[in-house]
């Protein structure tokens, strides 16, 4: 009789080892060079070394970053030819930005496969969230043509792109992301990201994503959703609000003005959706639509906290902008912008794996202190800079590098203070040229 193998507890070393192999694998190089002849000669910058260099938080001048990068090889007594800024610029032109997206996909695949440390809800569902945010880009003609202008009432304008990320709110993993023109509909971006989802995943959305078409797409792909609705979204929603019930399973149909061209449904297609009334502390009413129809298995009272989990993706964007400095791009071409964007998502996941493992170790230890402590996120990125090379360099002792990082992280812990809340400043990133760092938050990169 065959018995199913139980998932084992994977540590960070196991997961990053697979990423290390992918970076140095000839298949990766062959697939993601711009031309088949690229990196065929023995140059000072190989494909894998170029990848490592771009992953190492390129937030300072390239000349300084190159000196810091080469010092790692010198300290470790590893042969590596010096290279100039011009040599790197030429090398990066030969690399497709999608290589970092591919590496991130391989990293997350290793994390989620047969791993008992993966956090899920409702008998194995991943709890994901999708949201968009604007990124301010360098002001060049190429980027303006691709991403468009963002203007105010005057003739002054900046160049911005719209980032959209699929984020695992329980495991703090950026599963996938896209960067598009600023006027791209978030639902179009979200549909692209559904390709990263697995059957049965539960995805949480803000009200900007709500539509019959989008909910129908989830049903087709056997994905669950929790979606905030505008109170005037449709007659069905308005009647539900007026009826005063906390939960009701209803039938929805496409709106009268819905464009059905190219759709797999018609005007008479119906969709069963459960609507929930959520009363906020101030007395305001929110309406959530969900595919979790079973009112016995999924009690109404769980949805307020479940929807609140979506807030973690807002915190994630704050990390990308203010701690990882994603908007301080290392180049001006669209290829450089996309390389930096995908590389930052990858680096964020590497940090999250190490910090998550350490935070679990800290919580397992019984302590008589007033607070439970966690890793200081901002400092953890600062400590990871340069050391990430040791983590991913194929000849390095990864376990030693991870333990060194953990020791540094543990020396700078901060307390978790429960029931703290901060008022959301809507639009604070919308019309600025550079990231704003508050006075009590200093740069760590």
UniProtKB/TrEMBL annotation:
<dbReference type="GO" id="GO:0006313">
    <property type="term" value="P:DNA transposition"/>
</dbReference>
<keyword id="KW-1133">Transmembrane helix</keyword>
<dbReference type="InterPro" id="IPR002559">
    <property type="entry name" value="Transposase_11"/>
</dbReference>
<dbReference type="InterPro" id="IPR047952">
    <property type="entry name" value="Transpos_IS4"/>
</dbReference>
<dbReference type="GO" id="GO:0004803">
    <property type="term" value="F:transposase activity"/>
</dbReference>
<keyword id="KW-0812">Transmembrane</keyword>
<dbReference type="GO" id="GO:0003677">
    <property type="term" value="F:DNA binding"/>
</dbReference>
<keyword id="KW-0472">Membrane</keyword>
<protein>
    <submittedName>
        <fullName>IS4 family transposase</fullName>
    </submittedName>
</protein>
<feature type="domain" description="Transposase IS4-like">
    <location>
        <begin position="123"/>
        <end position="350"/>
    </location>
</feature>
<feature type="transmembrane region" description="Helical">
    <location>
        <begin position="47"/>
        <end position="73"/>
    </location>
</feature>
<dbReference type="Pfam" id="PF01609">
    <property type="entry name" value="DDE_Tnp_1"/>
</dbReference>
<dbReference type="InterPro" id="IPR012337">
    <property type="entry name" value="RNaseH-like_sf"/>
</dbReference>
